[in-house]
# Entry
Amino acid sequence: MPKITETILSLFFPRRCPFCGDTISTKQQICKLCEEKLPVVTGKICPRCGRGIDYCRCGSLRFHFERCVAPFYYEGIVRKSIINFKFYARQNSASAYAFYTADAIKREYSDEHFDFVTCVPLTGAERKKRGFNQSEIFARSLARELTLPYRDTLLKPNDVRPQRDLTAKERWRNISGAFCAAKQLNGAHVLLVDDIVTTGATLDDCARALKAAGTKRICCAVIACVKLGGEAHSL
Ligand SMILES: [Zn+2]
Ligand SMILES: [Zn+2]
# Structure
């Protein structure tokens, strides 16, 4: 957007912090106070799930994707903001998530060369009910931030029980076989995107479907990862 247009627009529609709603400058993604509260993933990171090793329960688990990265943990202001995003899908939130996720991708995936970005789909009924797929809105923003094309590649033909109500073991069984690829993707190198990751079962089934369609290599990116630990999430 030209600078003058941006300045005029900001007089009428001030840019707002996606986490607290306070007015911010056009140069800022979020306000200073929220920036200090971000639950950033730091320290030694698991090369498979992307969490700090204290919160990883990968064990001997092997995924159909190579790796996952997330800039944040799913807690505090990030959790609150993502819950909001599921209902309103505001573009300023998507842009801020994309900004931080792209940063993590450039750092962690510096050796990877992606052909395109794709995302975890909803069923037709789920999409109709919500009016949009929040993961797709985030994935499209992320693709723009990374100057990569976005492509719809996956389908979720049938409803499954919501993953949030299930234990880790049940999540794997529940989502297994839920996704399929809409087209052949021979030799493609794909960045697969979702909003959050818990056990990794959803991303894994999407990656399985992408592999079945000929995809060569899949890396994942999410806005936030749930810290694993305790009975409910142990694998
Ligand atoms: Zn704020
Ligand atoms: Zn891990």
